[in-house]
Amino acid sequence: MPEYRKTPEALAKLTPIQRHVTQDSGTERPGTGELLDNKAAGIYVDIVSGEPLFASSDKFESGCGWPSFTKPIAPAFVDEFRDVTHGMIRTEVRSHHGDSHLGHVFEDGPRDRGGLRYCINSASLRFVPREQMEEQGYGEYLNQVEDVQ
């Protein structure tokens, strides 16, 4: 397995919104994320560490204004923490190796797909198209991505 980690080089490449979301536990405005309407086949990886997080086959339209997924590619890459900020009790989602804030998970997702909704900021993600997964080192996850959308 490749080594996924946060590096000074990766942090230096972040845009202001990517830094705000991933490093300061911020949130992009709903409906503004670059990957919200992405329907291409592939995977979504941590913008900081590159660790694989979500597959396009698990993405769904939730209407919440952020990309939503039913489950992570591998639970080992996603950590969940109790979040009591903003007067709410939620479950924060962070990448395991990069420790990037990704978003939150809620229990109002599609019941027939497990019932979870991982509500994730586009600014925390980089999309890797299916046809580039092998060359970028994500070939082992091809079986989690549909052939066509």
Automatic annotation (TrEMBL):
The active site is at C119. Keywords: Oxidoreductase, Zinc. One of its GO terms (biological process) is response to oxidative stress. It catalyses: L-methionyl-[protein] + [thioredoxin]-disulfide + H2O = L-methionyl-(R)-S-oxide-[protein] + [thioredoxin]-dithiol. InterPro entries: Met_Sox_Rdtase_MsrB, Met_Sox_Rdtase_MsrB_dom, Mss4-like_sf. Coiled coil: none annotated. Its EC number is 1.8.4.12. The keyword Oxidoreductase applies. One of its GO terms (cellular component) is cytoplasm. Pfam families: SelR (PF01641). GO terms for molecular function: peptide-methionine (R)-S-oxide reductase activity. Residues 7-130 form the MsrB domain. It comes from the Bacteria. Belongs to the MsrB Met sulfoxide reductase family. This is Peptide methionine sulfoxide reductase MsrB. It comes from Scleromatobacter humisilvae. The lineage of its organism: Bacteria, Pseudomonadati, Pseudomonadota, Betaproteobacteria, Burkholderiales.
